[in-house]
Amino acid sequence: MPLRLDLVEGQRANLSAIERRAATLAPRRSVKKEWQAAWLVRAIGLIDLTTLSGDDTPERVRRLCAKARNALRQDLVEALGLSGPVTTGAVCVYPTMVSTAVKALDGSGIPVASVATGFPAGLMPLKLRLEEIRYCVAEGAGEIDIVINRALVFDQDWQGLYDEVRQMREACGPAHLKTILATGDLKTLRNVARASMVCMMAGADFIKTSTGKEGVNAVLPVGLVMTRAIRAYEEETGVKVGFKPAGGISAAKDALIWMTLMKEELGNAWLKPDLFRFGASSLLGDIERQIEHFVTGRYSAAMRHAVA
Ligand SMILES: O=C[C@H](O)COP(=O)(O)O
């Protein structure tokens, strides 16, 4: 849609109300027993299983893809009475690893997501950032996670941000576009709300909190602001935009809190992979460990779930 500055500038964030609401989510009694196991199996299908390290290698990416295809150990799948392997929502890698991941996931139906546009800082000339998107799509990425130019937010240059994300949307072609706001850098929740709105207007399929490299990554107050921007955008346009909290989500109990937030703020449609993903490199291991505890009554050492 065209940029509507009235809608962007109408976005406000009441810090104390948001902090109060976020504080009610964490200590709440969560789902237990078989319901918890079911929620955790659901959570696995929502993970963008991620490796974004300077020492990534094709072999590490292939191991990660093998884990994505069989995300829950076969004995646990059988003990839960599930049919077929449990898979993750996607595998997320750097651009040079896309073709390796595409080959390793062939026939699985699991999409490859690639970060792009000079991840994590985004401080490259726009021409090169757009070229990087086109490279990732040509390599076979079905989803592109771009980073926004934070300086445009600090300058409140909403037209500039809109124009860049619009061009990124076009460069994606058929691939889905996730826009990473790097909320830990954005200084205020009002900036988060406004940048969310601009990215959605420019055609983002998902808005994503963080790269995992900022000082503060996915936190609940930011999640509330972004989900409420998604709700406002849907009310205005009828279009549902997805949400991806990323960075620092590594415990199964945190995954349940995020899923509760989605259910309560946006509804059950946002508990499915077309509208919700976790960006996480180490969450799957803890989820598998908790499911093993549900099945056997015993906790295994975390190192037994080393991959992911
Ligand atoms: O987009 C995903 C993040 O980079 C993952 O962050 P994490 O390593 O803290 O789970």
TrEMBL record:
SMART domains per the record? DeoC (SM01133)
The family database entries (CDD domains) matched by this protein are listed as:
DeoC (cd00959)
Q: What is its EC number?
A: 4.1.2.4
The molecular function terms in GO held by this entry are: deoxyribose-phosphate aldolase activity
Keyword Lyase appears in the UniProt entry: yes
User: What processes in GO biological process is this protein linked to?
Assistant: carbohydrate catabolic process; deoxyribonucleotide catabolic process
* Secretion signal, residue range per the UniProt entry: none
Q: Identify the domain of life.
A: Bacteria
- Assigned protein family: Belongs to the DeoC/FbaB aldolase family. DeoC type 2 subfamily.
The name on file for this protein is Deoxyribose-phosphate aldolase
Source organism per entry reads Kumtagia ephedrae
